[in-house]
């Protein structure tokens, strides 16, 4: 990364342990919507700079668990998290933690590509760095935008149309734009909630290739209901069923020697 990109917050002394073995550590995490417990006592360690897939059938609590990792559940009235969630060594629900800083460090990409449609491609990526004051000159902002679009494997396709509205991009391009938008904030962890559910197979494989590339720099936690996708992209997988963690481990191990009958059923498509 050019030195000029290391401006703003990244120069400040950080409380996050950036060299931590685990990107995320969940301990006895339960999550409620009102009185309804939808995630039940989940303990899980997610190694840094890996792709970790959370898989399970619809309604098993995957998205809820994912959203607890960057305090997105703060926006859901009645949602409550119990237990401890550490991100790069820091308890993100502790008093005094700024949820905005948590969400900068832990970016998120959703199922439906959701760029701001009337904003230009450039502005979609520049918005976060503007809000967080991550640059000192227009030139530096241009560099961040280019860097993020390159990292999201979109630069070559959009470099001559940066000021066109994002709505003119295809669905797959829009999703990569959302990835660029998240990357522009220099996150260390990227949460992806079924990022290819609305994409065709070609756009899906582009995103999957991108995931493999990105894990060199960020930890990726991806929610998928597809065991095939988990097998293709993930180093580690966790299988969640009815809010409970059934098993977790290296992808190869879980797929070749599942310890639990439920996991085997899920992997063979019996759900
Ligand atoms: N805002 C909410 N208020 C109340 N209940 C909710 C809310 N969001 C989700 N739920 C419920 O929590 C449970 C888990 O939902 P969640 O979306 O986390 O599961 P999921 O495994 O991601 O499912 P899917 O694959 O269908 O997205 C479901 O029973 C769902 O109906």
From TrEMBL:
Residues 24-267 form the ABC transporter domain. InterPro entries: AAA+_ATPase, ABC_transporter-like_ATP-bd, ABC_transporter-like_CS, P-loop_NTPase, PstB-like. It comes from the Archaea. PROSITE patterns: ABC_TRANSPORTER_1, ABC_TRANSPORTER_2. Keywords: ATP-binding, Nucleotide-binding, Transport. Pfam families: ABC_tran. GO terms for molecular function: ATP binding; ATP hydrolysis activity; phosphate transmembrane transporter activity. One of its GO terms (biological process) is phosphate ion transmembrane transport. PANTHER family: ABC TRANSPORTER I FAMILY MEMBER 17 (PTHR43423:SF1). This is Phosphate ABC transporter, ATPase subunit.
């Amino acid at each position: 990364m050019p030195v000029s990109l290391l401006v703003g917050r990244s120069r400040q002394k950080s409380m996050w342990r950036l060299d931590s073995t685990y990107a995320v550590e969940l301990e006895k995490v339960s999550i409620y919507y009102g009185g309804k417990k939808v995630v039940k006592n989940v303990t899980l360690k997610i190694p840094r700079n890996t792709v970790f897939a959370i898989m399970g059938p619809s309604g098993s609590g995957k998205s809820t668990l994912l959203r607890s990792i960057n305090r997105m559940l703060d926006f859901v009235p009645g949602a409550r998290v119990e237990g401890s969630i550490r991100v790069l060594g820091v308890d993100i629900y502790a008093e005094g933690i700024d949820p905005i800083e948590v969400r900068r460090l832990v970016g998120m990409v959703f199922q439906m590509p959701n760029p701001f449609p009337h904003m230009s491609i450039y502005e979609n990526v520049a918005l976060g760095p503007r809000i967080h004051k991550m640059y000192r000159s227009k030139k530096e902002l241009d560099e961040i935008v280019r860097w993020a679009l390159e990292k999201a494997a979109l630069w070559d396709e959009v470099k001559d149309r940066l000021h066109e509205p994002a709505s003119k991009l295809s669905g797959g391009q829009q999703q990569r734009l959302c990835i660029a938008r998240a990357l522009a904030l220099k996150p260390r962890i990227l949460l992806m909630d079924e990022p290819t559910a609305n994409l065709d197979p070609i756009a899906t494989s582009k995103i999957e290739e991108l995931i493999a590339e990105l894990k060199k720099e960020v930890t990726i936690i991806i929610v998928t209901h597809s065991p095939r996708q988990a097998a293709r992209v993930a180093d580690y997988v966790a299988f969640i069923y009815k809010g409970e963690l059934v098993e977790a481990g290296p992808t190869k191990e879980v797929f070749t020697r599942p310890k639990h009958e439920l996991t085997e059923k899920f992997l063979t498509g019996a759900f």
